[in-house]
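lol so apparently i was supposed to do this last week
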Amino acid sequence: MPAEDHALIVIDIQNDFCPGGALAVAEGDTIIPRVNALMDDFATVVLTQDWHPRDHSSFASNHAGKAPFDSIVMAYGPQILWPDHCVQGSDGAAFHPALRVDPAQLILRKGFRPAIDSYSAFFENDRSTTTGLDGYLRARGVGAVTFVGLATDYCVAHSALDAARLGFRATVLMGACRGIDLGGSLARMTEEMRAAGVVLEE
Ligand code: VGL
Ligand code: ZN
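anyway here it is w/ zinc ion bound
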């Protein structure tokens, strides 16, 4: 049983990231039974939800001549363009029906500003606009965070890297995550997490 000051952060287990969804992660739904069981072991449970307006700048459909998975340069740096996904209020944005939601004390939505994408649960992709999660966790005395969810190489990795940078003891349970793996991103982000001191466990 992890200590009282240890939070479980469940990243983006939403229909659009599961098989059949708009930005499906292979085997994304297979992690759900383990994630559900883990919720009983943590004093604090946070769920995150990717939550985009229809005109979101990370959607290829909002850029003439661009296709999903093209890369562009935004005001804050490079940005991959995605298929329309997790549109606010849509079925794709809903949590997977098998995911337990009741144990969560906080449901954190991110990516709702049209001009900025947000992979990390802590900061949007400009790396300075805060979601408030840092303050929430600190105010509750949380010092350690364990991440599970989707996708390993995007929202999980960026959240874990920010957690380590902010001084939390950060662990990723790799076996309770699945990745998108675009152009070697899974190996690259795994190495970045390791180098940053994120503890990677199965
Ligand atoms: C994610 C790409 C776009 C994720 C969210 O949850 O990893 N990836 N939006
Ligand atoms: Zn998104």
